[in-house]
Write a structure and sequence with these properties.
The chain has about 450 residues and is mainly α. Helices cover about 75% and strands about 0% of the residues. The chain has helices at about 1-20, 30-65, 70-75, 80-90, 105-110, 115-130, 130-140, 145-170, 170-180, 190-210, 220-230, 230-250, 255-270, 275-290, 295-325, 340-350, 355-365, 375-380, 385-395, 400-410, 415-439, and strands at about 330, 335. Helix 7 packs across helix 8 (about 145-170), helix 18 runs antiparallel to helix 19 and helix 19 packs antiparallel against helix 21 (about 415-439).
Length: about 450
């Protein structure tokens, strides 16, 4: 055993040495690809981490800490009406910042605690596919029509796939339902409206702080008005968050007001939304971590930190790899990556059945850390990928991966896993063909 470990270490050292020895530093394309990777990473850090990712981590923390098991059973369990279960499951992903692997513990938990196979799989699919952060980034970077198509397609997929799986395995589901009818009601720690108010206040801040600029030349209309006033709107929801922290979470009002004052000073002195958000998040973290009244408040921030540790390293690696392989394309910038554009155009260009099917299969087996599918597709589209295959990859990729499939197989068996994956690939292919023919 010890010898195998030493051989493995030697092998990795040899591989790293050969990579370093044969680095093609003199090749212009390689050097350009390195620059593209760094350029895309810099742009992502400036444009998306502070305003998008950090608030999303706190939203994910709310789900992990403040939403009880009783709430899960109420909406996904045997006693829930089917239209309620599927409706909630299909859109629940809009509030989660998770990847195809991070969603697995949640899926396994609700499945084992009595959620039906259909609603559980609808939740499993929708979680990574249409989280609200991914929708915003998709619309901002890939276009509003792609963002809308992703949201509608993923929500429909979740319902159809869940319903189909439930129909295929209806005998098992009937037996499970009979077992769960006597599941005891779990009392909530606080009224549901309070948890919902706190949660949707955070979601509103995330949505309006990231409201996209309208097209050039547009200076009127609701979209433009919201964009022009987005910081005032976000501040209004910030005031609602202050109310929630004091009256719902019962955090010391003096501590909350001190954090609010620090945020206001940062806004007045710097005029920088980025710095203001950083100060606000730092203040929120401090008041929750130092709260002595309710351990859940501290756990909220610690849970959010767990999401940061899980997602941020993978996201950073994903953006670097995407930039190196596919180039950096944002705004007026278009720096090519290491993969020649004509390779991509030949495989996934146009809107053929093969192009859409190939994109679905590749997306199903690739691992996408949360949000990395957006810069990857940005590069692919710039390199010649068709819009239909791009949507097909968006609908199959984030929700599936090889690690994801292996874990799902352990939860519900090989046959169900194969049927589930097959449904995702077939529907993604069909959706890509339809979308590509329209746009």
């Amino acid at each position: 055993m010890e010898n195998k470990k030493e051989v493995k270490i030697l092998l990795w050292m040899a591989i790293l040495f050969l990579i370093a020895y044969y680095l093609p530093l003199g090749a212009e394309r390689f050097n350009t690809a390195i620059f593209a990777a760094l350029d895309l990473t810099k742009w992502y850090a400036r444009e998306h981490v502070i305003l998008c990712l950090l608030p999303a981590f706190f939203i994910a923390g709310v789900i992990a800490v403040f939403v009880s098991q009783g709430a899960v059973m109420k909406y996904f369990g045997a006693k829930a009406k089917k239209w309620v279960a599927y409706s909630v499951a299909s859109v629940s992903g809009t509030i989660l910042a998770v990847c195809s692997c991070t969603i697995l513990p949640l899926f396994s938990s609700i499945h084992k605690r009595g959620a039906g196979l259909g609603p559980a799989l609808a939740f499993l699919y929708s979680g990574p596919a249409i989280n609200i952060l991914a929708i915003i980034l998709t619309a901002r970077i890939l276009g509003i029509e792609m963002g809308i198509a992703r949201f509608i397609g993923a929500a429909v997929f979740a319902i159809v796939i869940g319903s189909t799986m439930s129909l295929f395995y209806r005998k098992e589901e009937k037996a499970k339902k009979e077992e769960q009818l006597n599941f005891p009601e779990t009392p909530e720690k606080r009224p549901m409206w309070q948890t919902a108010f706190h949660f949707f206040t955070l979601v509103a801040i995330l949505v309006f702080a990231n409201w996209g600029k309208p097209a050039d030349g547009v200076t009127e209309g609701a979209w433009y008005w919201i964009w022009a006033n987005k910081w005032w709107i976000s501040s209004g929801f910030g005031a609602m968050l202050i109310f929630s922290l004091i009256y719902i979470l019962k955090i010391n009002w003096a501590h909350v007001l001190m954090a609010t004052a620090a945020t206001a000073v940062a806004a007045l002195l710097t005029g920088s939304p980025m710095l203001t958000v950083v100060v606000a998040i730092a203040g929120l973290s401090l008041v929750t971590l130092t709260d002595k009244k309710d351990p859940d408040n501290k756990e909220w921030t610690l849970s959010s930190w767990d999401f940061v540790k899980q997602i941020m390293p993978l996201l950073a690696i994903g953006v670097l790899v995407a930039g190196f392989l596919l180039g950096s394309t944002h705004g007026d910038t278009n720096i090519p990556g290491i993969i020649p554009e004509h390779w991509i155009a030949n495989l996934v260009g146009g809107n053929s059945v093969f192009a859409n099917f190939f994109a679905s299969i590749v997306g199903a087996f690739m691992y996408f850390a949360t949000l990395t599918e957006v810069p990857i597709l940005q590069g692919l589209l710039a390199a010649g990928m068709g819009k239909g295959p791009a949507l097909a990859l968006l609908l199959a990729g984030p929700s599936l991966s090889l690690p994801n499939m292996l874990v799902i197989r352990g939860v519900m068996g090989t046959q169900k896993t194969l049927v589930y994956v097959g449904l995702v690939v077939i529907m993604a292919t069909a959706s890509g063909i339809i979308y590509g023919s329209l746009f």
